[in-house]
Amino acid sequence: MPPQGRPLIDSHIHLYLPSHYESLAWIDPSNPLYSSHDLPVYLSRVSSQLDGCIFVETDRRYTDPSSTSTFPAISNLSAAIGESISDDEAWQHVLAEYKYVSTLARDSDKLVGIVPWAPIHLGAEVLARYKIMLQEVDEEVFGIGADDSEIDKKAREKKGKLIVGYRYLLQDKPLKQYLDERFLDGLRWIKEQGKVFDLGVDVRSGGIEQLEHAVQIVQEVDGGEVGSKKPGLKIVISMHPFLLILYLVVQFSNYKTLTSIITDHLTKPPLGLSTDTELYRKWLSLLETLAAYPSISIKFSGAFSELPELPPSQSEQSPFPIKQVCEIIKPFAKPILRLFGPKRVIWASDWPVCNIGYEKIMKEQVGGWKTWVSVSESLLDSMVNELVEEGCGTIDEWGAVWGENAIRLYSVHKN
After folding, report:
1. 3-class secondary structure per residue, 310-342
2. Is residue 371 in some structural domain?
3. Cα–Cα distance measured from residue 222 to residue 4, given in angstroms and rounded to the nearest whole number
4. With 0-12 CB in 10 A as exposed, 13-18 as middle and 19+ as buried, what is 250?
5. pTM
6. pLDDT (tens digit, 9 = 90+) per residue, 311-326?
7. CATH number, domain with residue 200
8. Does residue 106 form part of some domain?
9. Domain total in the chain
10. Nearest to 50 by CA among 410, 380, 379, 347
11. Which of 47, 185, 269, 290 could form a disulfide with 332 if both were Cys (CB 3.0 to 4.6 A apart)?
């Protein structure tokens, strides 16, 4: 937990209802997350100290509108057979998700930011069209007040201020799309909006080349230079180990010629893998390259779903093996914290994904969030003390990891 009096912000959560299953691209009845994961459930699992959370889109089904697709979406079957597809049809599920989460945020002070899906791959012109559709949803959710009560006024103040970034997953896309001019044009558009971009790549399934291409994205779009003190492309890489999946949350600063990226889940490094391997050395070398850009940051988030196999709990009374889990994560976490420092690390849970590995050990999901907090506390306490002794930041500076860095990097609006 953060030091007393300092904020706790969960910078990466997902929310959905059973009625949304058909619109989710990844779920089926065999999935351990095949149950309701809405805001009331989330809030019932977290600490009373939580000050706020940031929703990140949940990979809904979508397609590309007619005459705009360069790299068709996985579900773009209609386009493949020549049918005309309107914007409304192509984006119905992602817009419905945005409406669902915006309504939750309207009625709850805990949901402080939204990172919706966006068609970054189609370039600035299409993104501008998409933004208008998001604004129309805002009008529907926030524009009609029953009266001038204080509740309605407070809700309307949130209108247009909840979107803190956009996400478009690259992990299932061809490598050539990473550096496609329309995609880079989309990133530059987001830069002009002063928002964040979440970019996901999967190094385990797609190869280390995906991470290499992610580095090239930074080099192509970033207006800053390696070692420069001026703001540039900020990447926050979340600690979500073992699968080596990289999620870039690209935050574009208010500087019109500069960019910032936040990378989720610590790139999901291969937990359990020996540090004396070529894969580990290559992974760390690429992160060193990213960290050399002073505006690139990393997200410290739930590792449970990516842990190597651990013995299941022998009984309901058996404690979670916090010490063992910390020993597995630390060889990957500490060098990354050393690289990025206390101002470029933000904490997150990746709820409900953090419940998956926890359930394998404890045979239930309810305690996943709070146990990840305990693991995070144990890891950060030990690593921060060691890093401070090495001259890497102060105890006070590292306290910002729990919330202040997220507020700053995501430009979260304060009510």
Report:
1. CCCCCCCCCCCCHHHHHHHHHHHHHHHHHHHCC
2. yes
3. 36
4. buried
5. 0.88
6. 666 555 678 889 988 8
7. 3.20.20.140
8. yes
9. 1
10. 347
11. 269
